[in-house]
Amino acid sequence: MPYKYFEEYNEQVTEDIKARYKSIIEDLGEDVSRDGLLKTPERASKAMQFLTQGYNQDAAEILKSAMFKESYNEMVIVKDIEVYSLCEHHILPFFGKAHIAYIPNGHIVGLSKLPRIVDVFSRRLQVQERLTQQILDCINDTLKPQGVAVVIEASHMCMMMRGVQKQNSVTTTSGFRGQFEKIETRNEFLKLISNSFS
Ligand SMILES: Nc1nc2c(ncn2[C@@H]2O[C@H](COP(=O)(O)OP(=O)(O)OP(=O)(O)O)[C@@H](O)[C@H]2O)c(=O)[nH]1
Ligand SMILES: [Zn+2]
Hints:
Layout: H1 11-27, H2 40-51, H3 59-64, E1 67-69, E2 76-87, E3 93-103, E4 107-109, H4 113-122, E5 125-126, H5 128-143, E6 147-156, H6 157-160, E7 171-178, H7 183-193
Parallel strand pairs: 2-5
Antiparallel strand pairs: 1-4, 2-3, 3-6, 6-7
Bound molecules: guanosine-5'-triphosphate and zinc ion (ZN).
């Protein structure tokens, strides 16, 4: 059976979150009954459920659903994967790019599954460090490659729109396992993704 990616919105959860958004909007001093805001609590409830759907998804199952026996022994890189997540401290977006590489060990994985697991872990309340680690661990534990590397570059709205208000800072996190712990392999990967860095 194909893996199911997004469940229907749960009616009860939608109603519960909607009621809470309604009172938050009122607490902010707005008139929730005016035309433009009438459906906002429900829209916001559904948007938030969409943005946190990763809690209900199993990244390892997604990888397992498309692993193929293959003797290819070189580096496979999928770079510039869009990341949209929510920082767990302020529930504001952070967004950027993920770059993933692995060296197969008897099995390759369907390429689209790498962006899919980025989404599974991004669509939660996150910190960039844990997001990086979870992607890395999932590939390492499921595919059991000779090595895996993950780099994420992201901008955090909580540092841009509020707080320290820095518009141009980019945070880079990375993790390396197996063959990528060797400096030459790691450098080859970093060189191959380097034109992605602005
Ligand atoms: N390490 C890490 N920190 C993050 C991430 N996203 C947001 N933060 C930080 O979480 C921290 C929370 O710090 P607090 O001092 O409790 O919150 P705050 O008073 O709103 O801090 P400011 O943002 O400095 O105004 C801030 O420094 C944020 O920049 C992330 O992905 N990783
Ligand atoms: Zn934040």
